[in-house]
Amino acid sequence: MAQAIRTTCAYCGVGCGIAATPTGPRSVIIKGDEAHPANGGRLCSKGTHLGETVALTGRLLHPMIGKRRANWDKALDLVAKKFRETIERHGPDSVAFYVSGQLLTEDYYVANKLMKGFIGSANIDTNSRLCMSSAVAGHNRAFGEDVVPASYDDLEEADLIILVGSNTAWCHPIVYQRIQAARAARGTKLVVIDPRRTETCEGADLHLPIRPGMDVALMNGLLAWCHATWNIDRTFLQDHVSAPEGFWEHIRVGHDLWTTAKTCDVAPALLEQFFTLFAENPRTVTLFSQGINQSIRGTDQVNAIINLHLGTGRIGKPGAAPFSITGQPNAMGGREVGGLASTLAAHMDFAPENVARVGRFWAAPQMATKPGLKAVDLFRAINEGRIKALWIMATNPAVSLPDAGRVRDALEAIPFLVVSDIIADTDSSAHAHVRLPAAGWGEKDGTVTNSDRTISRQRPFMALPGEARPDWWIITQVARRMGWKSAFAYDRPADIWREHARLTAYQNEGQRLLNLRAQAAIGNDAYDAMDSFRWGGTPFADGHFPTPDGKARLVLTKQMDLQGPLRDWPLTLNTGRYRDQWHTMTRTGLAPKLARHREEPLVEIHPQDADALGLADRDLARVSTAQGDSIFRVSISDGQRPGEIFTPIHWTDQISSGGRTGLLPRPLVDPHSGQPGFKSTPAAVEKVSTQWQGFLILRGQEPVKLPCLWSTRVAVPGGALYELAGNGDPVRLEACLPRGERVEAIDHVRGSRRVAIIQDGRLAGVLFVTRNGLLPSRDWLIGQLAADDVGATVLAARGPGSQPDKGATICVCFDIGLNQIVAAIRDQKLVDVPAIGKALGAGTNCGSCRPAIANILAQTSQETLHAAE
What is the pLDDT of residues 150-168, one digit of tens each? Predict the structure, then answer.
């Protein structure tokens, strides 16, 4: 067997180390890297199943101009020519790059240098604007630099961990596992602040289901309580923190416990319990994520959290820090090189002395002198005709940006659009004039920085397929064709890394903590062998901050009054991620095991609201906002607050006829960071009636478009499952079946139709539709895709003997379903999660499902108790 290659996971900002052992040209065994500081060998469900996503299904393998294949020279010449001509006619601000946290640091660096130093515009922004730019703005306002003052090691040192606006168990599972390990080892307390009761809340000491958007009021109220009860660190404040005039007067007025409780819509006793826990545990880490950042007041929410830590001296010490955990694998690397339109490079802003410094270093002919257009404004400028040429790299804004219908209009209207991606067909690339095949995970070579400033190598363990090339190479080739050959004379990623490291150190005499001077002369072999390392040590341990006076800054924050229910939009829409999916599913959507946890895009709604709207579980419902609408499958959940709904962000036109969450949020942004507010859009829900429902299973990977109201594609072993619903005559669906021997069964009473297609004894496709009857479990039929000698009995949808339905998949790693877990609990009288793991294996690998298992255990035990009574 080949030797394991140490690399880094392709997903979230935890930055887990992976040991990847190739077993063939496009196959690999994935294990956690036990030596990596972020995960110590642990992997979540997505990381565990990365090996299922490295095949070439759907890959863009050759440059494309329009619908025609082109060679690299022709495609690159055209890109360079169009950008050059656009700049000559309309100026440098008429072009833009929209890049991604999926890029490696070296890719990001070259793109940023080309745009800001040579094209002469700052119109380069990133999809990281959508997930953590409010944290960047908050750090800069408080500390003078975008520095995360914490590390994952602080989780093992803390006595209290507060999770704010973070479904950590699903979105950062390895962080959640470290938290639970710390709780087991040293009794660390856990508080979860989230309007929704998610699986992260299972086993927490306290859950505060605050009204959405009330985080400033909550943190100001806690700071006021600390001030009144002498839990303020007055010495630290005097020596190391400056406050604006009137700050403490503002905190003292209107932030008493009862007023705060009313504003946040939580019981005063619950709030006092939280305040007391905070006072009793000075070693506190406050982790915050998208529930804080994705708000039109996200920066103030970030600063309210930081104010609390500064005011109580809980920073720069082991186990005490505010901690922003990012969503993407290299959002931090992009921040470090200046990949945001609001920053210049190497943690420098657009102050004249910084523009001059970076210009000297790059020997740049035309430096950008002011911030560029942030993501939402950038696409608005396209619709207004101000941006004439756009290059999208490794992202899918037609799905992920708010008001995505208008974004799609912009992509359709722009005179010249380039998309570099690994996937041939996305909702965004459908509008591209030029498509460029980029390297994917497992083929890329470079570095990434995770949420706690740890820099790790992403190493290739597979050859580049077809004509795919690394992003840094593609950008460099265009830059050379635009006339800047010597400035972009890179031969390998190590060349770019050394330049980036030199820039962080250039004329940096301690003004900025980001300083990679020790990396500036690293050799190629040393770069290849680089171990993970964290820059910046323990920030602020000496009480010094990178501000002109060396002090941190308290920022006066005020709670914004949020509008109540509207006549036409009486509900509040919140959006977010599912446990086993990632962004727009171009990678995770290929993994059959990951697809089974949440097969369809759901709108989660409280029972009270569902009853008022006449909705039952598994109905279809249309979610509407002022921006657009889309259809979702209904999931009734008492984890939602009444009046609030939740939808996932992942589904696209390539996968589903509905579930397009990006169409729904308002394009309103935070005034400081430009980050959109995805968490509180006024919305309405109405039932969608259908005359029939069904499913289609096809062998093979070729997607099909189905002529019905509702269809969602789910990857399964050997093919695809389509969940279906609609009106009219469903017989037209049979046109999507392949050719072959046909067997069918029709039940006129139930309005049911079952059709199977068999080719050479193997199942090629099966369609089940019913108007009044029940549909069978799909699992046995999916298994028949791999079977030989399939006959007409396949229409029974089950094999001989007892074939119990395993239920909804809970443990992805071992394919354990809800019904199996419930049966084991009852039959074997299991009393805890480890016992269930021992009996079934569930929860013993990646651990992502343990909160769900704990919840099932609690519910089953309660039902058993009621039955006994």
Answer: 999 999 999 999 999 999 9
